[in-house]
């Protein structure tokens, strides 16, 4: 096994799945919702788990290179009406509980993920609290807003990713910012100039008979099967004959970059079908897009490897310059 990651606020394991694809072994998970715990148990049957972060002690966590936390966003999200309580809120404030555990365990690297509203909450003061909390413990920090649509996933989903490396101030930015430029891929246009159907259109249905959809999906939100919100156009697709339907749970999984049925529980006898759909929509809408986490994990692994090699080199140089004393007889 290469590098390892302990996961907090694990949800259905979007971060975990992406990091695992990048070569990380998942050593620990922490999640409070029973539906999510069932899904985690199905995909990571041998991983130790805790439930409420408020009751977790750093001694509960197996030694791991990285701790990853997509902490709750409800009090930070711009999608919510009214004032945002930010890091003082009962949900997003769980960040402080995570930092209490960090103080005890001091992992080598930390990944945080949240809605980009974290940057503006309380006029930036909440993000300042996040940065200061990490800085005070000796972490070098970088952050970047990444959009799932740039990672081969047909969805506009902007999230802020924070990378913190202990006592390594310069390298956190190296993880998130690549010096090289990507190339525009012209293969999406056919030789006669017409455009091929997008991945989103292909996932959602037949591009001639319908449903008719734009080329890319809106952000998938956490919501129930009985949607009562006002912005219906985000969650429904329509056919040329006027019929309308909602995305299916499998379509939402695909648009979020998960394998089909990732969130379909194996044991669902007692739960009514629409209850399961609600739980699935909600958990998928809360998740990290695995493809983004995979990209991040690949870059983090490269930087951690460089750090390890540098340490080995320095130790070797010290050993050569300070030869062991040989005792005279
Ligand atoms: C934004 S979601 C994280 C999604 C996850 N990163 C993924 O990719 O699926 C936040 C998660 O925190 C969990 N949570 C809320 N309160 C918690 C608590 N006290 N202890 C542990 N987890 C909690 C929620 O149930 C939710 O699944």
Explain what you see.
By secondary structure, this protein is an alpha/beta fold. The chain folds into 2 domains: 4-181 and 290-315, 3-Layer(aba) Sandwich (Rossmann fold), CATH 3.40.50.150; 186-285, no CATH class. Helices cover 33% and strands 15% of the residues. The strands form 2 sheets. Strands 3-2-1-4-5-7-6 form a 7-stranded mixed β-sheet, sandwiched between helices. It has a two-stranded antiparallel sheet with strand order 8-9. α1 (14-21) links the parallel β1 and β2 (25-30). α1 (14-21) packs across α9 (290-321). The chain binds S-adenosylmethionine. S-adenosylmethionine binds next to α1.
What's the structural blueprint in terms of helices and strands?
Elements: E1 4-8, H1 14-21, E2 25-30, H2 34-43, E3 49-50, E4 66-69, H3 94-105, E5 109-115, H4 125-136, E6 139-147, E7 158-166, H5 171-176, H6 199-204, E8 236-238, E9 244-246, H7 249-255, H8 273-286, H9 290-321
Parallel strand pairs: 1-2, 1-4, 2-3, 4-5
Antiparallel strand pairs: 5-7, 6-7, 8-9
Helix pairs in contact: 1-9
This protein binds S-adenosylmethionine (SAM).
């Amino acid at each position: 096994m290469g590098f390892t990651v302990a996961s907090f606020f694990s949800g259905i394991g979007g971060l975990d799945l992406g990091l695992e694809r990048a070569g990380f072994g998942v050593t620990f998970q922490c999640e409070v919702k029973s539906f999510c715990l069932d899904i985690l148990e199905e995909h990571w049957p041998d991983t130790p788990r805790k439930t409420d972060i408020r009751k977790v002690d750093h001694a509960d966590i197996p030694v791991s290179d990285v701790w990853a936390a997509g902490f709750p966003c409800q009090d930070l999200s711009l999608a919510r009406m009214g004032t945002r309580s930010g890091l003082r809120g009962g949900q997003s404030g769980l960040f402080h509980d995570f930092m209490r555990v960090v103080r005890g365990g001091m992992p080598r690297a930390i990944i945080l993920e949240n809605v980009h509203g974290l940057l503006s909450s309380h006029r930036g003061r909440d993000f300042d609290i996040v940065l200061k909390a990490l800085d005070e413990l000796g972490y070098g920090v970088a952050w970047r807003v990444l959009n799932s649509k740039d990672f081969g996933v047909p969805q506009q989903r902007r999230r802020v990713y924070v990378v913190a490396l202990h006592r390594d101030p310069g390298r956190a930015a190296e993880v998130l910012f690549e010096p090289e430029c990507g190339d525009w891929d012209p293969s999406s246009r056919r030789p006669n100039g017409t455009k091929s159907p997008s991945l989103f259109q292909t996932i959602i249905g037949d591009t001639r008979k319908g449903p008719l959809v734009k080329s890319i999906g809106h952000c998938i939100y956490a919501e129930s099967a009985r949607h009562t919100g006002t912005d219906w156009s985000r969650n429904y697709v329509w056919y040329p004959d006027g019929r309308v339907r909602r995305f299916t749970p499998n379509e939402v999984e695909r648009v979020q970059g998960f394998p089909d049925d990732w969130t379909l529980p194996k044991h669902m006898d007692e739960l009514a079908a629409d209850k399961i759909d609600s739980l699935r929509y909600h958990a998928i809408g809360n998740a990290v897009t695995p493809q983004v986490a995979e990209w991040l994990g690949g870059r983090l692994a490269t930087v951690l490897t460089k750090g390890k090699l540098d340490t080995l080199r320095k130790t070797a140089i010290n050993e050569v310059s300070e030869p062991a004393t040989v005792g005279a007889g």
